[in-house]
Design goal:
Layout: E1 2-5, E2 11-15, H1 35-42, H2 44-49, H3 52-58, H4 60-66, H5 75-84, H6 87-94, H7 106-112, E3 122-123, E4 148-158, E5 162-174, E6 180-193, E7 199-208, H8 232-239, H9 247-254, H10 259-266
Antiparallel strand pairs: 1-2, 3-6, 4-5, 5-6, 6-7
Helix pairs in contact: 6-7, 8-9
């Protein structure tokens, strides 16, 4: 998937290979609020099948939200980023959308005053295990001459009477020094019943998050216990809303809907 999105998060062009459904109808639409409802209407078969194409298209809200943040590491664009981000306006837009941006939290209060919300950023550690050649596929390095954000996911399952799941979710960015800086990282462990394919346990490990108000969302993932795995892309958005959730944790948990797809590959 290759998309071009403007500063207002409106999709200006979109190319998907192989082509699917009515994905081109997303051009001209916003990549934020309401996007996933439009996506489900445009490519319903891709969603129900859990295809890789759908997974890519489904990531649009996340990448259009955090993508511009990479500009903050580049001296040549940092001042422009701070002016165009419109901190007080942004505070109104994000207040209440998640645990980190709770209306009474310090990050929103700082933004409303035109101040830096003081993101927590951590140098990235190596994801691949040195003694396991299959732990991660080869990933190209950053371009070195332009801001970049990268989202990486891992979803490992072990089949049996109970299905064990271990997952990782990381958003990173790079500055002119080519050093990886982690913006968000969650670990996720879950278990599902093999016969009913329902979630029986889930635990979130908040490793790197922007604000002290963010990790509280991890305590609410148990709202999803008992839900069928295949419905999680929709049910997470219905059950874990507002300040009870975290945009990035929700994305990590919604990916558990892919577990049945991977099980079919194992068979």
């Amino acid at each position: 998937m290759c998309a071009r999105v403007d500063s207002g998060r409106t999709i200006r062009s979109l190319r998907v290979e192989p082509s699917c459904g009515d994905a081109e109808e997303l051009v001209g639409c916003g990549g934020g609020r309401g996007y996933r409802a439009r996506l489900q209407e445009a490519v319903p078969e891709e969603m129900s099948s859990g295809t890789l194409t759908y997974c890519l298209l489904d990531d649009m809200p996340g990448v259009t939200l955090i993508g511009p943040f990479a500009l903050s590491l580049w001296p040549a664009t940092q001042a422009g980023f701070e002016r165009t981000s419109g901190r007080s306006r942004f505070a109104r837009d994000v207040a209440g959308i998640c645990s980190g941006w709770r209306p009474d939290g310090p990050p929103v209060r700082r933004l409303a005053l035109g101040e830096d919300p003081q993101h927590n950023l951590v140098p990235g550690s190596e994801l691949a295990a040195r003694d396991d050649a299959l732990s991660w596929h080869d990933v190209p390095g950053p371009p070195g001459n332009a801001p970049m954000v990268r989202r990486r996911r891992r979803l490992d399952i072990v089949d049996g009477p109970r299905i064990f799941v271990d997952a990782l979710f990381r958003d990173s960015m790079w500055g002119p020094d080519n050093v990886e800086t982690v913006v968000h990282e969650y670990g996720l462990r879950a278990m599902a019943d093999r016969d009913s394919m329902r979630l029986t346990s889930v635990t979130a490990d908040p490793r790197v998050l922007p604000f002290p108000t963010c990790p509280a969302a991890a305590d609410n993932v148990d709202l999803l216990i008992g839900e069928p795995l295949r419905t999680l892309r929709r049910r997470v958005l219905e059950l874990v809303v507002g300040t009870d959730g975290c945009t990035h944790l929700n994305d990590a948990v919604r990916a558990l809907a892919d577990v049945p797809v991977l099980l079919a590959q194992l068979r």
